[in-house]
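Quick one: structure for this chain?
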Amino acid sequence: MERDENKYYQIGELANLLNISPRTIRYYEEIGLLNSVKRIEGGKRVYTDKDYQRLKFIQRLKHLGLTLSEMHELEDIYQIHRTNRKVLPRLLELLDIHASKIDERVNSLLKLKTDILSYREKIRQKLNLEGNPQKGEEKKE
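Got it. Here's what it folds into:
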């Protein structure tokens, strides 16, 4: 589906463009991550290209591991200062924190893998000893 930057989108159209549910879009509105939504006659929500860009940014932050709380913190900073110059340094801090957590998790997983391989080897050795009785021992069945 191709985007037209000068038109309004209904919630279903926007959801399809972004591959998310309309409920997710409404939820982002409820918690204040998406707050520029317009309504037309009958109270029907309509969305602009700015809303589309905002939702793409939220998706990107989510993909990078930021929590909704962290995204809300960034939104609060933007609402106070009305410039990304104040938001971007905090975003860098959050990304650094998440990258460090990933490094810790990778190291933990590598240690776990080493433990698994070591234990697997012990089990194999035990099976080999049981499968090959030493002289004078009979195989138990």
